[in-house]
Design a protein that fits this description.
Helices cover about 70% and strands about 0% of the residues. It is mainly alpha-helical.
Length: about 60
């Protein structure tokens, strides 16, 4: 899969971070409903970023 498709997946998760708390979790009055979702989404974003950047190489101008 091309790197750009993975980056679109990151943006999809970011979009879900705005949509889900106000729609699916809108009826949950406790703060931890959205917090748990955002914490899990944050871990997914970190994992995706590690996966996307694993092939980056450092280029030296020497």
């Amino acid at each position: 899969m091309k790197r750009s498709k993975w980056i679109w997946l990151v943006w999809a998760v970011v979009l879900l971070c705005y949509v889900v708390p106000y729609t699916l979790l809108g009826h949950v009055s406790q703060w931890y409903g959205s917090f748990l979702f955002w914490a899990c989404a944050g871990l997914v974003i970190i994992a995706l970023n590690v996966f996307i950047t694993k092939d980056f190489k450092e280029h030296s101008d020497d």
